[in-house]
Structures are given as C-alpha cells and as structure tokens.
Write a structure and sequence with these properties.
With about 375 residues, this protein is α/β, with parallel strands linked by helices. The chain has helices at about 15-25, 55-60, 75-85, 100, 105-110, 135-145, 165-185, 195-205, 210-215, 225-230, 250-260, 265-270, 280-290, 295-300, 315-320, 320-325, 365-370, 375-380; strands at about 5-10, 30-35, 50, 55, 65-70, 90, 115-120, 190-195, 235, 245, 310, 330, 335-340.
C-alpha cells in the first residue's frame, strides 16, 4: 500500500486529527495512537454503540495501535520522545501552547528528529486574535459565516448537518502531510503544518464570496445561485412530505425539465441571472412537485438528462446501492458495519483493517519494538506511566 513504512505518532483527539490518521492507516501507515491512561480517546464513549464499542470510535480509530502514556510523568515523556525519534509524522490537536508546556512542541521535537513532519490541528490555528479561543465544529462554522447561509425550518441559522470544519480540516491536513512527505524525499527535512478548522471553512467558500468581494455585502440568500436564488439549484417538497433536489443549472438541464413539464416559458428566465427572474418558476415548481410523491418523481426523472436526486435520510443514504457498489459501506466477517475508503487507487489500493484498538492494547508490543524490557514495562505500568 502507498504508505507502508510510514510511522505516525498520533496524539490527536475527537475527529479532525483521528480522521487524518485513519486515512493514513487505511493506506498502510503504522499509526501509534497515544492515549491518556485515564480514559483515553473521548470517541470511545461518544454516541451509539454496536458490538461493544461506539460507532464513532470504530469510524475514526480502526487499524491503529494504542499506547497509553502519562505525559506529565518524565518517563512517559521520555517514551514519547523515543517514539518521535524514528517517526515520520506527528499529529496533535491541542490548543496552542499546550504542547510547549508539555515540552513536546515542534521546536523541541525537531531537534531530535529534523525530518519529522509535525501537523497541528486547532480551531483557529496557531496565530491570530482567536488562537486561544476554545471551539469545536459548530462554533467555527458560526464564525466562518457558514451557519448564516444554512437555514433551519424556522428560517434562522442552522447547525451544519456534518462536522464540516472537522472533516475539511482533516482533508487539508492529509494533503499537507502528503506534500511534506514528498518534499522530505528531496530535502530530508521535515516541516510544521499549521491547520485551522476555521481556515478550512473559509477556504471552502470559493463559490460564495462574490457579493462580499465584489460589492462588500453579505449575500441575499434567495438571490444567490447556490443559496436558493436559482430554480434549478433548489429543494422542493413532494406530496408525501418528502423532498427532492434539482442540482444542475446548465441550460440543457433547464430546457429538459421545463419542456418535460410542458412549461417552456420558464426556460429563458431560468437560464438568466439568479434572483427575482427565477421566482415565478420556483413558485410553479413548489406547487408542481407537491402533485406527486417522492417515489413518483424518481420514476418521472428516470432516463431524463436532468440533475435530480431524492433527498434521502441517513439510513436511506447508507442503504443506497451506489454506496454499496463503491464499497463506502462494508461489513466485516461478523456482520458489523464499517465505513469504506473514499480514495480509490487502481494500483496498491487501500485496505480496511477492521480491528480497533483497546485502550493501551499495544503497549507491550510497541515498547518492545523500542527495546524496553519486560521489567521496564512492568515498572511503567506499576507507576502509572502507561
């Protein structure tokens, strides 16, 4: 697999950091997950359980090896430094300043391993006036403006349906780590990667900044192309209280839809600028879509060249044939569900290791790889170092 031979020391918690190292584990990297002996990874205890563990933990921690270390003990820190000495990548997701107080910040670690790629993921990154502010996904979405363009049933700002800041930050971190690994092959030097969850949401607004940059104003949602102002990029209710989505505004799709519905007079205005010119067509579509059930509309759109999809709930979405065909949902030999691998290589594809680590499960195994004796390990355990 692509990342075989890469060793990662992972101190991250919750979602963005673990999601990065999960992607690396799926492609062959050896992930040493460092956990606090008192409880470990919070994801072990969050949300629904299946087969004795949380689905959250399984979705973010499979294929890793767990070592518990008390980093407030000098021996615990010494063990970590020994791991770092031969590691390729180090990932952490603590607030700025925490790692320096623990004596394991980048400047310290690079002295013992100049080739180390150190990736830090924080809500607001390592600089700026918000750097010390605590925040998770919802707060960063609010500050980024994303919540303001995501509307709830009562018209106010809504919680974004996925952990968008977490997952976008994890993908940027993954790309940054891969670039740093490529560069290391040339220079032999590592690097410090500073990832901000808030930055990741700002970076995701490529198609939204028009009114802000060009006219110094916030968007008016029902006048913007991708925020409700285009009849062909919208969600409509059906007769059974379900919903369907139109998702393509190209002229050919517009023509195919309104010709098919026998309303060609809407083609020209809907091919024009979003906003008021689209409103009569939107009003018509709101009423028209209420004349059939969601299933009937699925049948009606079948075979027509129009960007369309039913709005599925999460169970329907994970049951969909496309998800199974792409192996984004898998079952292990015991029939337990797992998320699949989204990066599909033709050569050396990733491989799911269904095993999740017990808390500190691999302590003896890992420490022996670093020449600690059975007596050393027993002493560490007795003194609460591991």
């Amino acid at each position: 697999m692509k990342l075989e031979g890469i060793r990662v020391v992972d101190l991250s918690l919750f979602l963005p950091g673990p999601a990065v190292t999960l992607m690396m584990a799926d492609h062959g990297a050896d992930i040493l997950k460092i956990e606090n002996p008192k409880g470990g990874e919070p994801g072990r205890y969050i949300g629904y359980k299946q087969a004795g563990e949380t689905v959250f933990f399984r979705n973010s921690q499979r294929g890793k090896r767990s070592l518990t270390l008390n980093l407030k003990e000098e021996d615990g820190k010494a063990i970590l430094l020994k791991l770092v000495k031969t590691a390729d990548v180090f990932v952490e997701s603590f607030r700025p300043g925490v790692m320096k107080r623990l004596g394991i910040d980048y400047e310290t670690l690079r002295k013992i391993n100049p080739g180390l790629i150190y990736c830090s993921i924080a809500a607001f990154g390592q600089t700026g006036p918000m750097r010390d502010q605590p925040a998770h996904d919802t707060a960063t979405a609010a500050l980024s403006g994303v919540s303001s363009i995501t509307r709830s049933h009562n018209g106010g700002p809504a919680i974004v349906g996925i952990a968008s800041a977490d997952m976008l930050a994890s993908h940027l971190a993954f790309g940054g780590i891969m670039m740093a690994l490529v560069r290391k092959n040339t220079t032999g030097e590592g690097d410090f990667i500073d990832i901000g969850m808030h930055d990741s949401l700002m970076n995701a607004q490529t198609n939204l900044t028009g009114p802000v940059f060009a006219e110094d104003r916030a968007p008016v949602l029902n006048e913007e192309r991708s925020l409700g102002g285009n009849a062909m990029l919208n969600i409509y209710e059906t007769s059974d209280g379900m919903h369907v989505a139109l998702g393509g505004a190209e002229a050919k799709f517009t023509k195919n839809l309104f010709d098919g519905l026998g309303r060609p007079e809407f083609i020209e205005p809907v091919c024009g600028d979003p906003g008021p010119g689209h409103w009569p067509a939107q009003e018509y579509l709101r009423e028209e879509f209420k004349t059939k059930t969601r299933a009937e509309w699925v049948d009606w759109f079948s075979g027509r060249d129009i960007c369309f999809a039913p709005v599925l709930d999460l169970k329907e979405a994970w049951d969909h044939p496309q998800v199974w065909a792409r192996e984004m949902r898998l079952k292990d030999p015991d029939g337990i569900d797992h998320m699949g691998i989204p990066i599909k290589f033709q050569n050396e594809p990733g491989k799911v290791n269904f095993k999740t680590p017990g808390l500190g499960e691999h302590a003896d195994e890992i420490l022996k790889e670093y020449d600690y004796s059975d007596a050393d390990i027993a002493s560490f355990r007795e003194r609460g170092v591991i």
